Amino acid sequence: MKHDHGRLIAGCYLAVIALFTINIQAEANTGQGSVEGKDQSQSSALKPIWIQNRHTGESVLTHVGEPDTSLWNAKRITDYEDTLKVNTAPPLGIFTIEKLNLQVPIYNGTDEFYLNRGLGRIKGMAKMDEVGNLGISGHRDGFFRILKDIEVGDDIEIQTTLGVESYAVTSITIIPKSDTSILAPTEDKTLTIVTCYPFYFVGHAPKRYIVKAIAKDSLSE
After folding, report:
1. How big is the CA angle at 130 (ends 129 and 134), to the nearest 5 degrees?
2. Is 206 helix (H, G, I), strand (E, B) or coil?
3. Which of 7, 61, 118, 207 could cross-link 197 (Cys pair, CB 3.0–4.6 Å)?
């Protein structure tokens, strides 16, 4: 039984690697086309949004602010606005870094539609609210461009239907896009944030910008 369980974990990890190398590469790659001189700061008004637990079907009504698109690539803004015209499954949760004025819905998957509309949970990694390595991906010329200003020790919050989990950033690294070691399972409740790098690179970015964070409950144990 242990042998079969080990093979199952290995199979899941290989599947994650395949998803990482295929799905994370979906990006507009027009790096330097951010909108200059246009006031796109986040509105103080919050809009209602439903988040849903895909396993239980439970839904919770919460709120999310309008994104600050002042650093975004111009085409990324258009792509984001286009996704809002389409009905889709509710997000799994809300990702917040208050220090960076960043608040984004998290969808289940890293296909281009979801990454234009918000952030994506990397399938094959830990599920929302699950102990392990939860992978979150976003576009470097959209929601995640502001990650250039993140620092070790910053707080990140993930809201789901079960409540809010707080994380502390423990490391920021830049790795080759072929390095999938950051996707490996963990015993603690870990958050792995993935975007492409450099942030303003024109074309297919050659590297990955990785932010690791640990749930504060795990750090206190």
Report:
1. 90
2. coil
3. 207
pLDDT in tens, 123-151: 999 999 999 999 999 999 999 999 999 99
A 10 A CB-CB count for 5 gives 9
Active site residues: 139, 196
CATH for the 2-219 domain, from 1.10.3720.10, 2.60.40.1080, 2.40.260.10, 3.60.15.10: 2.40.260.10
Helix (H) or strand (E) holding 7: helix 2-23
Per the DSSP assignment, residues forming a β-bridge with 136 are 121, 193
The answer to whether 91 touches 49, Cβ cutoff 8 Å, is yes
C-beta atoms surrounding 54 within 10 Å = 14
Mean of the per-residue pLDDT values of the chain: 86
